[in-house]
Amino acid sequence: MELTLWTYEGPPHVGAIRIAASMRDVHLVLHAPQGDTYADLLFTMIERDGKRPPVTYTTFQARDLGASTAEKFLNTLQAAYEHHQPKLILVADSCTAELIQDQPGTLAQTAGLPVPVVPLEMAAYSRKENWGASETFYHLVRALLSNHPNTSLQAGSQERGSRPPRVNLLGPTKLGFRCRDDVREITQLLESVGIDVNVVAPLGAGIDDLFRIPEADANVCLHPEIALTTCGWLERTFKQKTIKTVPLGYGATRDFLQELADVLDYPIDIDRVSQCRLPWYSRSVDSTYLTGKRVYVYGDGSHVVAMARVAQREMGFDVVGLGTYSREMAREVRAVAAELGVEALISDSHLAVEQAISELRPELVLGTQMERHIAKRLGIGCAVISTPAHVQDYPARYSPQMGFEGANVLFDTWVHPLIMGLEEHLLHMFRDDFEFNDSAVPSHLAHGDGTLKEVDAGDVAQGNQSSLLWEAGAEKELKKIPFFVRGKAKRNTEQYALDRGLTAIDIETLYEAKAHYSR
Amino acid sequence: MTGQVLASSAADVSGDFQPQQERGQRAVFCGLTSIIWMHRKIQDAFFLVVGSRTCAHLIQSAAGVMIFAEPRFGTAILGDRDLAGMADCHEELDRVVAQVLERRPELKTIFLVGSCPSEVIKLDLDNAAQRLSREYSGGVRFVSFSGSGIETTFTQGEDSCLTALVPSLNQRESDQPHLLVVGTLPDIVEDQFRRLFHQLGIDCVEFFPGKSSTELPEIGLNTQVVLAQPYLGETLRALQGRGAHHIPAPFPLGVAGTAAWFYAAAAAFGIPEGRVEEVLQAPRARATRALSALRDELAGRRFAMLPDSQLEIPLARFLALECGMTPVEVGTPYFDATVMQAEIPLLPAGVSWIEGQDLDPALDRIRSARPDITVCGLGIANPLEAEGLRTKWSIELLFSPIQGFEQVADLAELFARPLRREAKLEVGEWS
What value does the mean pLDDT take over residues A367-379? Predict the structure, then answer.
């Protein structure tokens, strides 16, 4: 048993629904108790889908447990087929149905439906949403393509001749982060270098599209959480190479193009197509104030890996900590953390993330909607970079994260919650201004989440070396130090004083200590 | 039609009202959803769901926004290890409870809330609650109830919770007649009702649930119970089992409904009708005035309700009788004749009343009837909107003050706004 206040991922069957909802022609029959239909609102409310996801739930109740839930499943399956007329049916258990062991997958396969039935095992008590989506996509693709004629060919080595190279974009789904816009951005980018997009899946794909997957020269794994398993199988089965660089950020997008060029043995003039404002915006003098801003990064594995790089190397921030709820990506995230010399938090406990953020006192949090709430509470600016996300992170405007336009969007989005350069200086110069101080919000966010909030006196008092006396002048001076380093400055000064056998701290001690520790 | 007439004609009619039964796919939340408003109402309690990740995801998704600084609910998520051996589960639960109390030492009550998985594996939470109550005796009380989807729908979770609290209500010794208003009400409505009861001369009024889980109302042979919410049948029966008397009344929705509700309560306390008339006159006139403009917007419009919150029957009565709207089809998750006995005589004729649900055929009927507005759950609203049909989320009816005279216009406004919006927008086709 594990205590959870908020969960980052839903159960695995929600991942299965995401795959079904992303596609055409597919219907999921889910053996589930009354109540599990809440999953509909994730799609229709959060992503504003104009259609219910293609799911029929058996919604069994206590009275059905006494009779036959298996029969209820078969009736629901038949009714769902007749009403929705899909080309393929997925069948799964939700957590409760898994316990009553009706084996709906087996039942459905023997029900004599005129369309293929793909049974799914969702492992509700050990796995989560992204795993469920990944498994569903994998089983769906495998079921359709196992008998594909290309399996006997050395498909990857098929001669391209003079035709342009073509790739599949695999992984984008409903309820993914900005998938709609990322697909458009990456498709345009590939077109601009003369590479055709063969199939995008699961988002927007029909069954016929999945049959065409083997016709591509390589698979672009846009979302490893969803598509890496499938890409691995396609690589083994059809000798299709996997493009693994996720094009999130300016540098990663260039690396992505380089990987395509190498894998496809196809020349790409990367400099010509690298039309992006991020490099200049980041170099422009106005951005100097971004240097060394303390940033915490948390989200799904692939976004955290990519965003940490953008934050550190393209924005010039200092990543002071990072973490992920994707245990599957723990190794990659740890590697990035090691490179940055920080600790990686591999945990899906909202409370652990909250603790890490409050201890590190970053000036900006790049996280999920949960971190937005943590940041709001702590008075820190926040930008959302990963699922789970709320309705405002499915914006009306074109707002990709991937590719060169995506890098522009990242720059704008991350700078927005921060206090601008000169305003920050003035705040530090005139600390006692009654309406313009470090607990005030940035002037362009009058009702927004301020990024500098006065730390509770108690926070600073923590770890107080009680034998030391702070003279009034020194204490006042301490308050002029920016809040996010104030606690550290206080501790350092006290340690410095103790080491030298001092009993009182005056302004001189404060600056002596500052000089000592800045070496 | 006066409230007094409504109240007195209510008791003897029911029997012949039989909604049509439907079985099939249901798009209704489970009882765990009640925790969203109950954990805000009862301020010294924590709701610990013992269930799966689905349970945790459901509650946070239904709450829609993460507005709570620190929610007073959480889920003890069962894992493979818990399912392997039952003995372990109780130790694990103890550990999780200790974790909750370490974070929130001020808690007075922890509700152990059963879920579909905990019911199916027959995890005995009643037993666990008793055991934990003994262990933490004097400090924290543990009460268990089920919010599972196999046993409860949406609002029924509150019924199940309050029913579980009834045995711990103290026996009332006083001879003074005593009114117990049952069902979570917004604080502002509770205050308004308390003032009106006071003016009527009923001073001994208690609300259940209240803000505190330890200061529960007493109950005795001279306790009169009036329901403020239409989903509390089991709670009512448990209270009757403790000797309380039920005051059948329409629900306090709309001017007539609220008046009838007060008349019924006053009659049970022997308060002369003239006095009731006098006390209710001003708020009633005010509410009628406030409603009149909205009535003009709503009259003649057709509405449908898909089963969701149990509020469907009294709301349909209000929309038909007081707003001049025409019900096309009204579905309700389940029908409780005792709870609804005073509503039934008021219901308009020629309406298709449905108990239970079969979602796909129900949506097909809505598509062909094309009502002006459909009251439905969150999952279905946008799909209907995209087909050019206006909707009202039923969950909003649970999250906003809609009961009582002062809220009548607010209630009508919830239905008028989508229609007004449609008239206002010039953005091409709805979808």
Answer: 90
What CATH number should be reported for the domain holding residue A483?
1.10.8.550
Residue B380 has its nearest CB partner, among A14, A52, A76, at A52
Partners of A323 in beta bridges: A298, A345
Residues A168 and A233 in one domain: yes
DSSP string over B306-360: -SSSS-HHHHHHHHHHTT--EEEEEEES---HHHHTTTGGGSPSS-EEEEE--HH
pLDDT at A444 over 60: no
CA distance A15 to A12: 5
If you search the block for the tokens 């550990």, which residue do you land on? B95
**pLDDT confidence band for B430 (50 / 70 / 90):** low
Angle B233-241/B156-165 helices, nearest 10 degrees?
A: 20
Q: Where does a domain end: A273, A303, A330?
A: A273
| B366 in contact with chain A, both atoms CB, cutoff 8 A | no
Kindly report the nearest CA distance between residue B119 and chain A, in angstroms.
9
A370 contacts B52? CB cut-off 8 A: no
* Pairwise pLDDT comparison (B169 vs A431), residue with the higher score: B169
Residue count of chain B, please give it.
431
B379·A33 Cβ contact <8 A? no
**DSSP code, position A297:** E
Q: A288: which DSSP letter?
A: G
Apex B30 CA angle, B24 and B32, nearest 5? 175
d(CA A82, CA A80): 5
Other C-beta atoms lying within 10 Å of the C-beta of residue A100: 18
The interface pTM score, or ipTM, of the predicted complex is 0.93
Is B338:B233 a contact under the CB 8 Å cutoff?
A: yes
What average pLDDT does the segment A137-143 reach? 98
User: Which residues of chain A neighbour B117 with C-beta distances below 8 Å?
Assistant: 95-96, 99
Render pLDDT for A246-257 as a digit per residue (tens, 0 to 9): 999 999 999 999
Tokens describing residue B11: 């008791």
Half-sphere exposure of A510 (CA within 13 A, CB side): 21
- Angstrom distances, CA of residue A227 to CA of A236, A284, B217, B293: 14, 38, 57, 56
> The domain spanning residue A78 has which CATH number?
3.40.50.1980
Q: C-alpha A21: how far from its chain's center?
A: 19
Closest in A3, A40, A95 to B52, CB measured: A95
CATH architecture of B178-275: 3-Layer(aba) Sandwich (3.40)
Is A286 among the residues known to form the active site? Answer: yes
pLDDT of residue B429: 73
**Any idea where the domains of chain B sit in the sequence?**
3-25+287-424, 31-152, 178-275
CB pair distance less than 8 Å for A370 and B66 = yes
How many structural domains comprise chain A? 4
Give the DSSP letter string of A143-211: HHHTT-GGGGTTGGG---TTSPPEEEEE---TTSSSHHHHHHHHHHHHHHTTPEEEEEESTT--HHHHH
Superfamily of domain B31-152: Nitrogenase molybdenum iron protein domain (3.40.50.1980)
Among B290, B344, B340, B329, which Cα is nearest to B9's? B344
Sheet holding A26-31, edge to edge: A55-57, A26-31, A88-93, A117-119
CA distance A422 to A425: 5
| Domain, as residue range, for A37 | 12-126
pLDDT (mean) for B296-303: 97
Which of A80, A95, A126 terminates a domain? The answer is: A126
Alpha carbon distance B37, A327 (integer Å): 33
Sign of CA dihedral A143, A144, A147, A152: negative
Of B33, B83, B99, the CB nearest to A125: B83
CATH class of B3-25+287-424: alpha beta
* The pLDDT of residue A130 is above 80: yes
* pLDDT in the model for residue B5: 40
